[in-house]
Request: fold
Amino acid sequence: MEAKQLRSNLKIYSLEFHVLALKEWNKLDGSIQVQFQKALKKRLQEPKIPSAKLRGDLQNAYKIKLRDVGYRLVYQVIDQRLVIVIVAIGRRDNEEAYLAAAKRIN
Reply:
């Protein structure tokens, strides 16, 4: 009985893309997309990971890091709609993803 209650209390978020983030996603190599998909699958159940929370201009956003390939994905959580919105995806070099996300959010 307790397992059923836990499942019913579990909120699963849906996923949306900012228009420009979707273009960035489509340009990614398939293997990088797969790595992000695995991470996003976990985040749809628990999107607000304290260690992934960003600061400064992006204080209402979170990141997913792919260290091996040097990519970052920045997303926002909209609790009212149970949605994760992917705002930007890019290489870590020159903080590309973070700069793009700051422009799109603010």
In short: The longest strand covers residues 83-91. The helical segments are 2-9, 19-27, 30-43, 96-105. Strands lie at 14-17, 61-66, 71-78, 83-91. The two ends are 46 Å apart (CA to CA).
